[in-house]
Write a structure and sequence with these properties.
The protein is 5% helix and 33% strand. It is mainly β. The structure holds FE2/S2 (inorganic) cluster (FES). FE2/S2 (inorganic) cluster binds next to loops.
Length: 132
């Protein structure tokens, strides 16, 4: 990712092309996988955000072939968004501090001082249910 994107905190992960792929109610965020092709491949990710969601969420189809969800807010100052690291089983802040975490949320490097708390996620193969 280029330095200008980092300075301005422009993340690589996009919102899903089909905004109808997710719903939120009663603390549960549901993502329909057939409507979210961005998650079909390892390394794919979407960011979910909006007034109906209590917090921004990053959903990743990990290099371990499992799905992972995180509050999409770096724990370092600035609270920038995070992205999956291409080809690696890590996630990284989009800002210049490059705070990097593993899928358990453990801080590996960068400016942050605290780990990330992953969100509980269940998958039945057709949808994801994330506790937000
Ligand atoms: S805001 Fe993420 S590393 Fe600084």
């Amino acid at each position: 990712m280029g330095i200008f994107k980092r300075i301005f905190g422009i993340c690589a992960t996009q919102v899903p092309a089909n905004s109808g792929c997710w719903t939120y109610a009663g603390g549960k965020l549901e993502v329909l996988l057939d409507k979210a092709p961005e998650l079909s491949q390892k390394g794919g990710a979407i960011r979910l955000e909006g007034p109906s969601l209590p917090k921004r969420v990053l959903v990743v189809h990990g290099q371990d072939d499992a799905f992972h969800a995180f509050p999409n807010r770096c724990t370092h100052l600035g609270h920038r968004r995070i992205d999956p690291v291409p080809g690696d089983d890590k996630i990284r802040c989009c800002s210049v501090g490059k705070s990097t975490f593993d899928y358990s949320g453990k801080l590996l490097s960068g400016s942050a001082k605290e780990s990330l708390e992953p969100l509980a996620l269940e998958s039945d193969g057709s949808k994801l249910v994330i506790t937000v």
